[in-house]
Automatic annotation (TrEMBL):
Protein name: Erythromycin esterase family protein
GO terms for biological process, alphabetical: response to antibiotic
CDD domains: Ere-like
Any Pfam family the entry gives: Erythro_esteras
Source organism phylogeny: Bacteria, Bacillati, Chloroflexota, Candidatus Thermofontia, Phototrophicales
Highest taxon above the source species: Bacteria
InterPro entries per record: Emycin_Estase, Hydrolase/PRTase-associated, UCP036794_erythomycin
C-alpha cells in the first residue's frame, strides 16, 4: 500500500514531485539521519539549488556556529577580505566535529553559491548562516572586535563579560560545573552586552560588509544563548536541548525579519531537529525541536519538513566526544524499523511524498524505529545504531530513502590535501 507515495530518486529531476509539494511554502527544512553521510549533503545541495533558482529562496541556515558560517556568507557574497576560496574558509572550521561543515560536499555547495551570487544583483544574493548556540567565546570575540573598531564607547560591556568568563579559561565544561556548584553566573554580563548592542547606532559597514550591524548583534544574541545553554547542560535534562532549539528558531526568525516580508528560507539540520518532536517520544520527555516550533510559530501550511534515512552504508563519526574522526560501517537496519520496511518495499533510492495517498499516510503513522546517528557512534557495540520510535508521516511531510550510502569526505583527514578526492562527484 505505501508504494503509492514513492517514486524513484536517481537524478535532480526526480525531485519534481517534492518541488510541487513545496509549492509556495516559505520554509523548507532538510534533515539527515547522520552527520557524516555524503548523500544527505548531495541531495540537500540539489534540492537547495532548485529552491534558490526556481522558487527564489533567500538563504540557507544550518546546524552550525554563527561566526564560522558567517565567514561563508561573506565569501559567497564577495565581501572584502572574505577569503580566496571555499576550501580555505571551510578548512578553518576547527570546532569538533570539524567534518560536519569542513568537507568536500560543502565546498561544492559554497562554490556554487558564490557563482550564483556573482551573477545575481545585490538584493537577490543568497546568504548562508549558522543557527547553533555553541560559540560563546568566538561570538564574544567578534562583538569585541567590532566595538573596538566602530563603537569603543560600548567596549566596557564586552570587557565585563570577558572578565566574568576569564577564570574558566575558555572551558565551557568548567563554567557549567561552576554554576552548578556556586549560585553565580555570567548571565547578567552577556545580557547587558546584548542590550548595549541593540541600543547603539552601530556602523553599517565592516570590510565592505552591509550586514555588519546584524552580524554583531547576532553574535551578542549567541553569547546570551550560549551562556544559558552551558549553564543548563550540566543538569542532564531536557532544558538544555530546548534552550538550543529555541535559540535556533529565534535566530531563524531574526533572519527572516532582517530579509523582509515573504522571505523564503532553507534549513539544514539533523532529523532530530528537523522532524516534528511530537511524532516521537521526545514530546513525552518535554523536549521540543525546530520542526515542531516552526510549525507552531509560523503555520504548518507554510512549512515543509523533509527527513532522510538509509538502510546501510558508511559514515564519518567519532567513538566518543572529541575523538578522532573515523569512517565506520552502518549495518543493515532491523527489519521492523522504517528503514527496514522501506528496504523491503522499494529496495532502491526513493522519494516519499506522504500527501499523495491518505491510506498510505495512515499506515506510515505507525510507530517504528527510525535510524539516528549523531557525531558519536560505535558500530562495534553489538547494536545497529540508535533508532528513535517515530510516526514517519507525522514527523515529516516528505522523506528521502537511500538504499546504501557512503561516508562524507572531510577536509581534515590526513594526508592533508588541497585537492578533492577521486570520488568527488559533485562539481560546483
Amino acid at each position: 500500500m505505501i508504494q503509492t507515495v514513492g517514486s524513484p530518486l536517481q537524478v535532480q529531476a526526480d525531485l519534481d514531485p517534492l518541488m510541487e509539494e513545496i509549492g509556495d511554502a516559505h520554509l523548507v527544512l532538510l534533515g539527515e539521519a547522520t552527520h557524516g553521510t555524503s548523500e544527505y549533503y548531495l541531495w540537500r545541495k540539489r534540492l537547495s539549488q532548485r529552491l534558490i533558482q526556481e522558487k527564489g529562496f533567500s538563504f540557507i541556515a544550518v546546524e552550525g556556529d554563527w561566526p564560522d558560517c558567517y565567514k561563508v556568507n561573506r565569501y559567497i557574497k564577495g565581501y572584502e577580505n572574505a577569503g580566496e576560496n571555499a576550501y580555505h574558509i571551510l578548512h578553518a572550521f576547527k570546532r569538533w566535529p570539524t567534518w560536519m561543515w569542513a568537507n568536500w560536499e560543502v565546498v561544492a555547495l559554497v562554490e556554487w553559491l558564490r557563482q550564483y551570487n556573482d551573477q545575481a544583483p545585490e538584493p537577490d544574493q543568497v546568504g548562508f548562516y549558522g543557527l547553533d548556540v555553541y560559540s560563546l567565546w568566538e561570538s564574544l570575540s567578534e562583538v569585541t572586535r567590532y566595538l573596538t573598531m566602530y563603537e569603543p564607547d560600548a567596549l566596557h560591556t564586552a570587557y565585563q563579560a570577558y572578565q566574568c568568563f576569564q577564570p574558566y579559561d575558555e572551558d565551557v565544561q568548567s563554567y557549567a560545573r561552576a554554576t552548578r556548584l556556586i549560585p553565580t553566573s555570567c548571565e547578567s554580563e552577556v545580557v547587558d552586552l546584548l542590550v548595549a548592542m541593540q541600543r547603539k547606532g552601530l556602523a553599517t559597514l565592516y570590510d565592505g560588509d552591509r550586514e555588519a550591524q546584524f552580524n554583531a548583534q547576532q553574535n551578542a544574541h549567541v553569547a546570551v544563548g550560549a551562556e544559558r545553554y552551558y549553564r543548563t547542560m550540566v543538569r542532564g535534562d531536557a532544558e538544555s536541548w530546548n534552550v538550543r532549539d529555541h535559540h535556533m528558531v529565534d535566530t531563524l526568525e531574526r533572519l527572516l525579519n532582517y530579509y523582509g516580508d515573504n522571505t523564503k528560507a532553507i534549513i539544514w539540520a539533523h532529523n532530530t531537529h528537523i522532524g516534528d518532536a511530537r511524532a516521537t517520544p521526545m514530546a513525552q520527555a518535554g523536549i521540543v525541536n525546530v520542526g515542531q516550533l516552526v510549525r507552531e510559530r509560523l503555520g504548518k501550511e507554510g512549512v515543509v519538513l523533509v527527513g532522510s534515512g538509509s538502510y546501510e552504508g558508511h559514515v564519518i563519526a567519532g567513538r566518543y566526544w572529541d575523538a578522532d574522526m573515523e569512517e565506520m560501517p552502518i549495518v543493515e537496519a532491523a527489519g521492523e524499523s522504517w528503514e527496514g520496511v522501506l528496504h523491503e518495499t522499494f529496495g532502491e533510492d526513493t522519494l516519499l511524498i506522504f500527501s499523495k495517498d491518505a491510506q498510505a499516510r495512515e499506515l506510515l503513522e505507525q510507530v517504528r524505529g527510525h535510524r539516528a546517528i549523531g557525531v558519536v557512534y560505535d558500530p562495534y557495540s553489538g547494536r545497529r545504531g540508535g533508532f528513535v520510535p517515530t510516526a514517519l508521516s507525522r514527523r515529516y511531510d516528505a522523506f528521502l530513502y537511500l538504499q546504501e550510502t557512503e561516508a562524507l569526505h572531510p577536509l581534515h583527514l590526513q594526508p592533508e590535501t588541497t585537492q578533492p578526492p577521486e570520488t568527488y562527484p559533485w562539481g560546483v
